[in-house]
Design a protein that fits this description.
123 residues, mainly beta, seven-stranded mixed β-sheet, four-stranded antiparallel β-sheet, 11 strands
């Protein structure tokens, strides 16, 4: 069992920055790939960024160059640094962990999710 708790969301003006955190407990954090997804009202959950156990990263085209995913295995924490935020980044952001395999784009392949944190970007 893995428990995930996101934090760091909030209201920010366009062009601003936020840093999301995802604190994990339970199983060995460093053994699994992890990802950040987001879901806007009326839309499907979509990949934002993912990171492997070895630190390799992947990003959605819409956030490349603006967002950075990282992990601190010693602190059992996943991060998402979001810069140059746009109103279209407004969504609930979720972190997830994939215990078996690594199909990082597919939300249904993630085994555990946090409760989400709201990010709102005003224009």
């Amino acid at each position: 069992q893995v428990q995930l708790v996101e934090s760091g969301g909030g209201l920010v003006q366009a062009g601003g920055s936020l840093r999301l955190s995802c604190a994990a407990s339970g199983r060995t954090f460093g053994s699994y790939g992890m990802g950040w997804f987001r879901q806007a009202p009326g839309k499907q959950r979509e990949l934002v960024a993912a990171i492997t156990t070895g630190g390799s990263t992947n990003y959605a085209d819409s956030v490349k160059g603006r967002f950075t995913i990282s992990r601190d295995n010693a602190k059992n924490t996943l991060y998402l640094q979001m810069n140059s935020l746009k109103p279209e980044d407004t969504a609930v952001y979720y972190c997830g962990v994939q215990v078996t395999g690594w199909a990082y784009r597919q939300a249904e392949r993630y085994d555990y999710w946090g409760q989400g944190t709201q990010v709102t970007v005003s224009s």
